[in-house]
Amino acid sequence: MIGGPYERTLVMLVAAMAERNGHTAQAILPDAGLVLYEDRQLRIIQATPPDKVLLRGDVDITNSPALADALAGVTAEWGRVTVDTEGLRFIDVSGWRILVGPHPRRGPRPRLLNIAPCVHRLNQRMHAL
């Protein structure tokens, strides 16, 4: 987690240098960004560009409401969200529904980027039912 003032300053400098050279901060510091939620299992990070969210760890029934809230907040502010799931090790049906299920009240479904194997497997199983 990016926490102290020195770490935040370093991240801002790296981001500025990366953008000046035609890159993004994530190319240099993959987890650089605003931590929207963190518990023992899951870290949700708002990255650059600000409509991109990184997921790291495990999503289950205990933290899927936090995932829904984080995505709703980013969607409300920036429109359709891109979710990078590469850092997920596990996802259960409650998390899958937030990422892939219908969203009649929450706006557009997020775009998925770097789909983790656990998300792919669960998606295949759910569509086989």
From TrEMBL:
Entry-linked SUPFAM superfamilies: SpoIIaa-like
The STAS domain, residue ranges: 55-129
UniProt xrefs under InterPro entries: MlaB-like_STAS, STAS_dom, STAS_dom_sf
UniProt feature coiled coil, ranges: none
Pfam families noted in UniProt: STAS_2
Name of this protein: STAS domain-containing protein
